[in-house]
Each structure stands twice: as structure tokens, then as C-alpha cells.
Amino acid sequence: MSSPELTTIRSPIDQDKLKKFLQSVAPSPKVHIGHNATIPSTFKEIQQFTFGQSNPTYMLTAPDGRRFVLRRKPSPNAKLISKLAHAVEREFFILNAINVLNSESEHTVPVPRVHLLCEDESAIGYVFYIMDYVNGIQIKNPSMPEIAPEDQKLYWKSVIETIAAIHLLNVEKLISLLPASQFPQFQDVAKLKSTSYFARQIKTLNNIHKLQSQHVAPIPNFDTITGWLLKNAPQDPDKLTLIHGDLKIDNILFDPKSKTVCGVLDWELTTIGNPLFDLANFLQPFELPNRLNNMLYYPQKTTMGRESKGSVDFLYQKLAEYQQLVTWSKKDPKNNPTDLWEIGHTFGLLRLCVISQGIAMRVKMGNSSNAASAKGYASMYPYLSELAMGYVTKTKTTPSL
């Protein structure tokens, strides 16, 4: 439990050019100003956060003590291998739209206020945006072993309320606030309502799996797992729903005084889809094997995992609390996270398989940024596939790790 860590600058940024840009910033086709923005005219200090491997992230401190966060792409657009993997533009526009909706809604999502997006690479050499610094703490282990039980209840109450608030956002209004050029897939609302999020995602994962399997061993039982998911996956809720896309505890900042969520971060993967995915992604550790959790959250020790009745009971308690706040379908009472949990969890395991296989491919090709750590994750996908098959076959076996 700590505030995000800062270090000296590892990824260079031209501070003189940035100061010059801030002194004369004005809206233009390539410079976008956020809702209720207060743009710093200069800064007295700049540091880099330890997180932000994909998009370098910096703390700017203004002369009056106000703190801001700058996120930039790692390279100019022309040199990026995948622009989708570094979509800071999408993140800016999503955060800005949510801030507008927050000013009009009782269901507010705690996100940083964004101030400006600069798509003009001549300014500092990269596309970047600036937002408020959220003064909160990170809790990296969802079992919260360092936190008193009474405080855990308060943190979790706020987590569930925050997830519900995301899923209750007015998506039609949100779409109207987004530039069509950045969000072409959101423009055809009729098409969005006629297709299934899980079907779209499985098609995407299948394409990635085929590509990765040209370089490393395929995921065992991939076709069996995807076939079962397609057969059993639910329809999307009656109402179009925004999902975060990478919702997990280390993408949330907490206020240690009020014991509430004060910031939800990392919106690059957000889309319109099925909220079951966000819940499965966030609560997944409570049904993973305990030994795997102890590897993932090392050096902290945890009893969290499927072997513990208390862990699984806690998971279903959180699902029930969410259901008190959000109804997915008035026509189909079984379209709810409790009844659909095992489908969401199995999809989450399949997604982890594809991620692990991708790491294995990068290790083999020598493209891993942290080879020692990556090798451990690269070897996990056969194990994760066996876990997923336990739900497909209804055996729920726990393979040896």
C-alpha cells in the first residue's frame, strides 16, 4: 500500500520545448482543451513514474505547487509498431467525456480531470496529454493483507460502487462527446446492439492466437475452450454499456482517509461491451489457485484462492452487491454476474493464455523488455489452459504448477 513511485527521468523529454509550448498553448485542430481545464503555464520540476512501460508517464510540479501528470507515446507515430497499443488520444477523449458526464450525473466515476491533448509532434516530438495528479495510494493485492478488516469493507464498498458507476454511464451521450475519427467503432449504434461482445473478442483472440502459434506452441485445447465460450456466452445487456477493459486493483487509486476510490486509471482499452468482463477481470484472483496467486503477488503471502471457501464466498458476495446496483436485463433474469460468473472467469483464463503465449513469442524473438521476469509468464499458458478446461468439463481440477 503506497503512493505511485517516482524516479529520475529514464525516457527523455525536451523540457525546454515543453515549457515553450505551455507558455503559448491555444486550441487548434491538433491541440484539444479539456472540460474545465486549468493548464499550467510552466513547471519547476519534472519526474518520471516507475509505471508506464507502454506510455512514459511524468509528474509535473507547477511553481504554485499544483501537480499534473503528462503521458506521452514512446515514439513518434511513424515509428510505432502498433498505434493501438499507445492510444493516448483515446484515453484523453474518454476521460474528458466521463468528466463531462460526471458534471451531469448522480453516478460519478472518479477519474482525473484532463487539461490538454497535443497531437502536434513538432511541440515536443511525441503526442502527449496532461491531466491532474490524483493524490492516492495503490493497493496491489486484492486480498488487502496489510489493511484492517473494517477498512477493507469500506474500500471494497467503494470499489463495487465505482464499477457500477462505470457500467451505468449514459453511453449514447458519451458517444456524442467523442470524435468519430478516434472512435469509428462506436458510431454504428445499431450494429453494436446486434453483435455480442464476447463473440467479437473471441474472434480477435483467435486471430492473435493463429499469428502467435506461427512462432511458439499453440495453446492446448484452444478450439475447445473458444467453442464452449461461444456456445455459452451471454448476450450483452439491454443497455449499451461502457467497460473499462483492463479493470484491476492496481489501476485504481484510493483515498486512505475516506477509504474510497479517488481515481480510475489506464483507459486505453475501454470499449462498449459486456460488463461481465470487467467483473471477471477484477475478481479473478479470488478463484485462481492459491499457489498461482502467491506467485503473482510475491513477496506478499495470501490465502486468497479457489481452495479457500472464504475466498470464493467473498467473490460471490461482491457480485451480489454489484447486482443490487445494476440490472443487466429486465427480460432475462439469468443474465446477471452471479449466474454467469464461470463463463466470465473462463473467458478471463483464455485471455490470460493468449497474453502468456504472446510473452512466450516475444521471449523467443528476443523482444522482451524484462527477459528474466517474462520467462516465468511465458511458460504459464498450458497451465492456464488446463484451468480453463476444468470449467468446460465441469471438473474444476487444479493442475500442478
From TrEMBL:
<dbReference type="InterPro" id="IPR002575">
    <property type="entry name" value="Aminoglycoside_PTrfase"/>
</dbReference>
<dbReference type="GO" id="GO:0004672">
    <property type="term" value="F:protein kinase activity"/>
</dbReference>
<dbReference type="GO" id="GO:0005524">
    <property type="term" value="F:ATP binding"/>
</dbReference>
<dbReference type="InterPro" id="IPR051678">
    <property type="entry name" value="AGP_Transferase"/>
</dbReference>
<feature type="domain" description="Protein kinase">
    <location>
        <begin position="43"/>
        <end position="401"/>
    </location>
</feature>
<protein>
    <submittedName>
        <fullName>Acyl-CoA dehydrogenase family member 10</fullName>
    </submittedName>
</protein>
<dbReference type="InterPro" id="IPR000719">
    <property type="entry name" value="Prot_kinase_dom"/>
</dbReference>
<dbReference type="Pfam" id="PF01636">
    <property type="entry name" value="APH"/>
</dbReference>
<dbReference type="InterPro" id="IPR011009">
    <property type="entry name" value="Kinase-like_dom_sf"/>
</dbReference>
<dbReference type="InterPro" id="IPR008271">
    <property type="entry name" value="Ser/Thr_kinase_AS"/>
</dbReference>
<dbReference type="InterPro" id="IPR041726">
    <property type="entry name" value="ACAD10_11_N"/>
</dbReference>
